[in-house]
Amino acid sequence: MLSDGTSLPNPNQTPGGADRSRPLVLIVEDDPDNAHLIARVLTGAKYDFLVTSAGRDALQHARTILPDAITLDLRLPDIDGFALLQQLQSTPETREIPIIVVSILADERDPRLSSAFATLPKPIDRVRLRKTVAAALRQRQPESGT
């Protein structure tokens, strides 16, 4: 169980990332309804996920778990999402992880979001989210082309 009360959905999943059989997506979202919606989309696409509602926890999880992709809300209770995006992109361990901004503030023309893999506005379009996560994972793992 994680610090925010969530748990890993796959009993074979390890927090250190060893022996992952399915891609792992870190969901950074403080709204429980939106986190649940994103989790349902990822589960339907057969991805594992980990949810955190706090930016500082997200940074720690990203560094230790090394997820295959991250969905990031920009409005978080403890840290500015733009600042978190910058930290993730400038940290050697996490800079290669594709980040999908999912936020009411998502505007692909915003230069502060230029390092994001994609920006998706809220309300969340499930089909677009699923396709975007799949594309991010293909970019992250090009050797697993099936």
Strands, helices and their partners?
Blueprint: E1 24-28, H1 32-44, E2 48-52, H2 55-65, E3 69-72, H3 81-90, E4 99-103, E5 118-121, H4 126-140
Parallel strand pairs: 1-2, 1-3, 3-4, 4-5
Helix pairs in contact: 1-4, 2-3
The low-confidence parts are: 1-18
* Succession of helices and strands: EHEHEHEEH
Helix/sheet category: alpha/beta
Strand-residue proportion:
15-25%
- The strands making up the biggest β-sheet line up spatially as 2-1-3-4-5
Q: What is the CA-atom radius of gyration, in angstroms?
A: 14 Å
Number of distinct beta strands: 5
CA(first)-CA(last) distance: 32 Å
The tally of helices reads 4
Global shape: globular
The overall pLDDT average reads 85
**Helicity level, as a percent range?**
25-40%
Major β-sheet profile: 5 strands, parallel
